[in-house]
Design a protein that fits this description.
The complex is a heterodimer. Chain A is of the alpha/beta class. Chain A has seven helices and 16 strands. In chain A, helix 6 packs across helix 7. Chain B has one domain (2-250): PPM-type phosphatase domain (Phosphatase 2c, domain 1, 4-Layer Sandwich), CATH 3.60.40.10. Helix content of chain B is 31%, strand content 32%. The longest helix of chain B is centred in the first third of the chain and has 19 residues, at 74-92. The chains are: A alpha/beta, B alpha+beta.
Chain lengths: 289, 255
């Protein structure tokens, strides 16, 4: 299971589910300058950039992935706008062709001979930060389930879909356990849907990353998210190990009280799929800050 | 299958097979084979699927390597790769690229390469080889494995080998993984040059002792081999990857 080769004939599906409730406009603890919503939007844009680059074959983007970005807060729906607006799930080649804007900048990298050179880089933007309203997690997960059901009807074979859910608070519209379990029961011939959850906190509480059992969790909400988090398949464990993350056999795709670095790693591990080398957030050659 | 007389003492019997991934066209194959019986050089390169212009880089490396008369030491190899990389990058100048192609091109291209040069001028036949990545040379004698490089066993293959980068700023570390080696051949010896999926499968056959691969690659027709490798890849016994196989049998000259 979780070993199918991802091809154009058998693509996989990646859904990024983002909490955009009002509290996401608060800063991370200890970093009053940075709103959670700003950081998450930046990480999601980097993740989409990475997925596009992985599928780029010289001048063509191959549709190995179908991607959805769903936000929930004042409303529930796709975070894509512009040309991609109104479409719940889109092939990665369309994501590549329709960013809202492409920012240009320069960064310094090693020239290989002990010096540094400045090279141009592109930062495409697909989603903007949003933080408004309550936390309708159940409605959002129900929307995800609808998207998955439709997609799985057309793609019953191949690597199963991955849902990466990020939230900073408890559901405001009921217990997400039942709908979460329903999502985790869907799947392809290569395994059930992978639902991973990352909870981020403004409190200075100890973070818990990729636990194997719920006894270490502090409260009922944490245990609920643990219950609806899939076990990390072997390939994802290998990706976690490459990033220096301590995940074990039986670890759930679950982070509680995560900080900014947890978010970055969560998306890197969650999109590592069939054991591909996880995307390095910054090039190894980039000048250290 | 072709034969080439190399000297009064030695002949070569050559065979090559290049197959794209199961769901892809031949034009999408990123493995490359190059054979030059004049220089007595043979190479297999495997362009990294995720790299920019990987097919072109693999073909360039293989074809240009067999045409050279040196590049068998690390220093020569490093200098040569840097020049090839510059030419590749120059060929991209003037292209109007989308943001994603531009980003991909910025990281350069990557490929695995193994090249072997035979010396058949004397009574004693020998080879010298250079390799970086997971394309392999296997030296076989009477159905057994004499030597394998750069990887020694089927378990050594993983998804992130160190490759030949077109961007020379990466060579400081990557060139540390270059492997050079040499060997003495006897009449009837077979050298196999293989891209990673074929090499992994082949080494496993030697480890399990369940198939005489050099013999198998000799007696089967092209159609039979293609059918066999398609079936194995479909069944998942060989990873669905491009396959490049060069079989070189060293024989005593008849005249």
């Amino acid at each position: 299971m979780y070993s199918a080769q991802i091809t154009r004939a058998n693509p996989t599906c990646i859904i990024l589910l983002i909490d955009q409730s009002g509290s996401m406009g608060d800063p991370f603890s200890g970093d009053s300058a940075r709103k959670k919503s700003d950081f998450v939007a930046e990480v999601v844009n980097h993740t989409l950039h990475d997925l596009v680059i992985r599928c780029t074959k010289t001048e063509e983007v191959r549709n190995y992935y179908h991607v959805s970005v769903i936000g929930y807060g004042r409303s529930v729906g796709s975070c894509f706008s512009g040309e991609l607006g109104g479409r719940p799930i889109v092939p990665i080649a369309h994501v590549a062709d329709y960013p809202l804007q492409v920012k240009s900048s320069y960064k310094r990298v090693s020239d290989g001979g002990g010096g540094w050179v400045e090279i141009p880089v592109r930062y495409p933007v697909w989603i903007h930060p949003a933080a408004d309203g309550k936390t309708p997690m159940c409605e959002a997960l129900t929307r995800v389930q609808e998207i998955l059901r439709g997609w799985l009807l057309e793609h019953p074979r191949g690597f199963p879909p991955t849902v990466l859910h990020l939230t900073d608070g408890e559901s405001s519209d009921g217990d997400p356990n039942e709908i979460g379990r329903q999502i985790m029961s869907l799947g392809t011939d290569d395994g059930t849907v992978l639902l991973f959850n990352c909870h981020i906190s403004t409190r200075r509480s100890a973070k818990i990353e990729y636990p194997t059992e719920e006894t270490s969790l502090p409260d009922g909400f944490a245990r609920t998210l643990f219950d609806i988090s899939s076990r990390l398949p072997t390939n994802f464990l290998a990706a976690a190990a490459q990033l220096g993350v301590n995940a074990l056999e039986g670890s759930r795709g679950f982070v509680f009280n995560g900080d900014p670095s947890s978010i970055v790693q969560f998306y890197e591990i969650g999109t590592s799929l069939t054991g591909m080398t996880p995307y390095r957030w910054m090039d190894d050659r980039t000048e250290p800050a | 299958m072709s034969s080439a007389k190399q000297s009064t003492t030695w002949d070569l019997q050559l065979r090559q097979l290049l197959l794209p991934k199961l769901d892809q066209e031949a034009s999408e194959c990123e493995d490359a084979i190059a054979i030059d019986t004049q220089t007595c050089r043979f190479a297999v390169a495997d362009g990294a699927t995720e790299a920019f212009d990987a097919r072109n880089w693999a073909e360039r490396l293989a074809q240009h390597w067999v045409q050279r008369k040196s590049t068998l030491t690390l220093e020569e190899f490093r200098e040569w790769v840097a020049a090839e990389g510059r030419e590749l990058h120059d060929s991209w100048n003037g292209l109007t690229l989308s943001w994603y192609s531009e980003e991909k091109a910025r990281k350069g291209s990557f490929a695995a390469l193994v090249g072997v040069e035979l010396d058949l001028k004397n009574e004693s036949a020998s080879w010298k080889a250079i390799a970086l990545g997971d394309t392999c040379l296997l030296h076989c004698r009477k159905g057994t494995l004499v030597k394998s490089l750069p990887l020694k066993c089927s378990e050594s293959f993983n998804s992130a080998p160190v490759l030949v980068a077109s961007d020379s700023s990466l060579h400081e570390t990557s060139m540390q993984s270059v492997v050079t080696d040499s060997g003495i051949c006897q009449a009837g010896d077979v050298l196999l040059l293989l891209s990673d999926a074929a090499a992994s499968w082949c080494l496993q056959r030697f480890e399990n002792k369940d198939l005489d691969v050099p013999e198998f690659l000799s007696v089967k027709s092209d159609e039979e081999l293609q059918e066999f490798f398609d079936t194995e890849r479909m069944a998942g016994r060989i990873r669905n990857d491009d396959l490049a196989i060069v079989r070189i049998e060293i024989k005593r000259s008849k005249s």
